[in-house]
Amino acid sequence: MNATTRTLSLQGQAGHIEAMLDEPADGAAQGTVVIAHPHPLFGGTMQNKVVQTLARAFVQRGWRAVRFNFRGVSASEGTFDEGRGEAIDMQQVIMQVAPEGPLALAGFSFGAFVTSHVAQALGDQRPPHHLVLVGTAASRFEVAPVAPDLHERCLVLHGEQDDTVPLASVMDWARPQSLPITVIPGCDHFFHGKLPLLKSLVLRHLCP
After folding, report:
1. What pLDDT sits at residue 114?
2. Which of 7, 65, 122, 201 has the greatest count of CB atoms below 10 A from its CB?
């Protein structure tokens, strides 16, 4: 992502997990965000542009940003596990890169689905300071609900013209929770031409 990006070698349930770390320029981080990428079987990796945009936004606000490849992607070992193993992977990444201190979670598409379950699994033990879900794959997977106590710290972003995950499916998921959704007009699933706006919205959400 930039000259200061460091490669990490982590251990997961299925073997080696490939990851990358970006830190604020001054080296003084207020916490760590772990970011999950889109569907591994459809080209999703930690190099995805939306994932990189999320990392940039968090770093700009003073967070360490860790992206990682799910099992079976690039140098990460193992095979696709429909979200179950991927959630375990994400939890093991958290334990290794952020065993303590402020934690934030973010994910895009399939990664948002996985992130929702990780946030649910952490529960009251370690609730994230921020939860950012982008293009949440609610039409394809059973996305976990967001705990009421997390609603004020949760940002859900979706494109109005998303034809991969229809906006209606995300609204159906959010409605029973009374969870607000920020809809970006004229935006598709991959945020083509809208990445600067995506970053701006995340930066605004992360303001103290």
Report:
1. 98
2. 65
